[in-house]
Design brief:
Chain A is of the alpha/beta class and 217 residues long. Chain A is built from 8 helices and 11 strands. In chain A, strand 4, helix 5 and strand 5 form a beta-alpha-beta unit.
């Protein structure tokens, strides 16, 4: 099966599996079966077996998965065997928080360049990154090994910035602006939006639903 | 149909519809059909009609949806007719960025209290919020109208903090710590995890998939 035929809903769960085997690996767990992994992740064992079967055979029936092998294979499937350089667009309050976030680099994601339109910011060093003029975006990206862009500009500028990134050949965008961004085919965008996550929580609060639910949001 | 029978995957899409009608409303669009709304959101029109049909009849066949009515109804369904007070746990770098984030209050979400374990932080004022001792969490929450907690503590403290919040009766948690948190039935948790979102992007980069995809992450 070609990886581009894998349903997006499965692709979305792969990092969750990767996170789980990372934690299990740190706890020196060597083998885990789909029941225990399912209980850990609140996913059914059938779901896990079905999801992983897209990528070949990881476990022997009744023997469970080798944590180290699953860790290695998921790392490879997700493209995490290399470091990924990213460009950050927008170094306002949100952008600065993203620049100072310590969670990217240990996972192989590095903010290698940052851009803004504000003349007062351009040339300044923020968290070891010199703010560059957004008008130089195309040129700088061409000279670099950057494949991912993070959008942290205000709502009303976000679509324009995303359009520019797409024009520069960026195919992967992590977007923090609360908009319904349009991207052409072949470009992938992920929205980080805590307000939308909160709105699913308030749905459950006002509707007094009894079940528990978990989702990345 | 009772709201607690609504599939979680639909609940997850409701804030997206709400966001869209908010934007359309600001652009003075009065009526939108499921085709145009679908094109706007990159969701099929059938999906939209099916999702919204869970909540009654919003549009007339062939006439489209009234944007103002859809806006009002989704606001009510999602429980957004009131302000929601939240507690923030952890006022380190990430917690401070969350406190200073300007996107919560306009949407009716207010950080009304913040807590930390660090004696150097306790008593200090951060973004108009006085840092309180986490040992007083239970007492303070009982005296307040707080129904949602935001977890912004380091990875190794997160599960303990989540357990304490659950003990204090909190049923809704927005979690920024990169862990697979365990919560009992009846408690809803949403993880905000940019690294997992990035890992679905790198999957597509290494597997050169052609389609475009969008997901909140």
């Amino acid at each position: 099966l070609k990886p581009n035929n894998i349903p997006e809903v499965i692709v979305q769960r792969l990092p969750l599996y990767f996170r789980a085997v990372e934690l299990l690996s740190r706890r020196k767990v060597e083998v885990i079966n789909s029941q225990d992994l399912g209980a850990f992740l609140k996913v059914t064992p059938t779901q896990i077996r079905k999801d992983l079967s897209y990528f070949g055979h990881f476990g022997k029936q009744g023997k469970g998965y080798s944590v180290s092998r699953l860790h290695k294979e998921l790392r490879s499937i997700l493209g995490l065997e290399r470091q990924w350089c990213m460009a950050l667009i927008g170094v306002g309050r949100l952008g600065r928080a993203i620049l100072s976030y310590g969670g990217f680099e240990p996972q192989g994601f590095k903010i290698a360049a940052c851009f803004d339109t504000d003349p007062k910011q351009i040339g300044k060093k923020v968290s070891n990154c010199i703010v560059q003029d957004i008008s130089e975006l195309g040129e700088k990206l061409r000279q670099s090994d950057i494949h991912i862009a993070i959008v942290a500009v205000p709502q009303d500028q976000a679509q324009n910035v995303i359009d520019s990134l797409v024009k520069c050949g960026i195919k992967s965008i992590l977007n923090y602006a609360p908009i319904c961004a349009r991207v052409p085919k072949g470009v992938n965008i992920r929205d980080i939006d805590p307000v939308m996550a909160l709105q699913t929580l308030t749905f459950h609060l006002v509707n007094k639903s009894e079940g528990s639910s978990r989702t990345r949001a």
